[in-house]
Amino acid sequence: MSDKSILARKSFYFKEEDDLSLRPKSLDEYIGQKSLKQNLKIYINAAKERQEVLDHILFFGPPGIGKTTLAYIVANEMGVNIRTISGPSLERSGDLIACLTSIEAGDIVFIDEIHRIPKTVEEVLYSAMEDYRIALLIGREQGGKVVDFLLPPFTLIGATTKPSLLSAPLRNRFGINAKLASYSTKEIMELILRSARVFKHPITHEAAFELAKKSRNNPRLANRYYKRVRDFATFYNEQIIQIERVKIMLSSLDVDEAGLVEYERHYLTILKERFNGGPVGIETLSALLDEEKENVEEIYESYLLQIGFIERTKRGRTITKKGLNHLNGLKN
Using CA atoms, how far apart are residues 235 and 196, in angstroms rounded to an integer? Predict the structure, then answer.
């Protein structure tokens, strides 16, 4: 069967645990990040050959691009356990200490959103990462004393969307710094076809390509859209997902030809119609959108900047000719 043929469907129904299998378990199964995967294979095989723990790793890149998945793959390839923590959940140093004192030799500790850990927690990490020890204060005030507690050798994997917010002392303790590259439409299409195999609900190549084009080159969004179009196909008793169903599903989610959704078009419309294209300050835009400044920057503007629909200037935000053409095209 050629690679353009429709995937054979084995079953219309799926098991609940199938959702978990969307996450690949090996570097060979992982789609994209070719250069990074090759390097990780070398680091992992070298560590296993020397019977050492893997060096600490920092993954950074946009949300939904596969940082957490890679952390789990590294653990699986090393044959060790992984403990997952969210940076914001580490409110006190004791939270981190409780985790580190319960791991076994070789384990991986994965901290997502590591840029959001408090300074007091970060300071505990310094000696833990460098010397596999933590200093515990026993008692208080003059009667207290510091006791060193040895940890088993472990690997810390940090993930962040904002590496610039990491302090230099913490960033420098990661032996492997890896920026995840952007995905191509072809890679996203391959990912969608893989999801179709996992869920045993095939999709034509034409339909997968249409989904990939609207998925912003983001694996997480691509899988989300595939699951939604699969819901539509199931509802209408369609055993193979066709491009027509994809278009209907995307329309129901208000996704346009550029992959924009309603709130992004609203942002562009404000720039165009209320400010003649800009420039306009972020504070004014935040007030008009009734959103926090950080939300406007991270949610509204991120993709618009990426595809060149807006620009950030010293005087404020402006809509580009490309952005104007898109808005005008929607009205035609």
Answer: 17
- Rg (alpha carbons) of the chain, rounded to whole number: 24
Is 220 annotated as catalytic?
yes
Write down the catalytic residue from 69, 107, 112, 265.
112
Ramachandran area for residue 60 (φ above 0: left; ψ -120 to 50: alpha; else beta): beta
> What integer pLDDT is reported at residue 21 of this predicted model?
62
Q: Which of 55, 68, 234, 284 is catalytic?
A: 68
Low-confidence spans in the chain with pLDDT less than 70: 1-21, 136-146, 331-332
Residues 202-225 pLDDT 10s: 999 999 999 999 999 999 999 999
Length of the chain: 332
pTM of the model as a whole: 0.83
Of the residues 25, 48, 213, 220, only one is catalytic, namely 220
What pLDDT was estimated at residue 143?
Answer: 59
The question of whether 4 is a catalytic residue gets the answer no
- Output the pLDDT for position 123: 87
pLDDT, one tens digit per residue, over 21-58 is 678 899 999 999 999 999 999 999 999 999 999 999 99
Q: Is 155 a catalytic residue?
A: no
What is the per-residue pLDDT for 2?
Answer: 34
- For 307, half-sphere exposure in the C-beta direction (CA atoms, 13 angstrom radius) is 21
- Catalytic pick among 84, 161, 185, 318: 161
Residues 6+ apart with CB under 8 A from 273: none
Among the options 67, 171, 194, 245, which is catalytic?
67
Q: CA distances (Å), 325 to each of 268, 321, 328, in order?
A: 11, 6, 5
Please return the burial class of 313, using the count of CB atoms within 10 Å of its CB with bins 0-12, 13-18 and 19+: exposed
Whether 68 is catalytic: yes
Q: Count Cβ atoms within 10 A of the Cβ of residue 266 and give its class: 0-12 exposed, 13-18 middle, 19 or more buried.
A: middle
Give me the phi and psi of 135, to 5 degrees please.
-100, 120
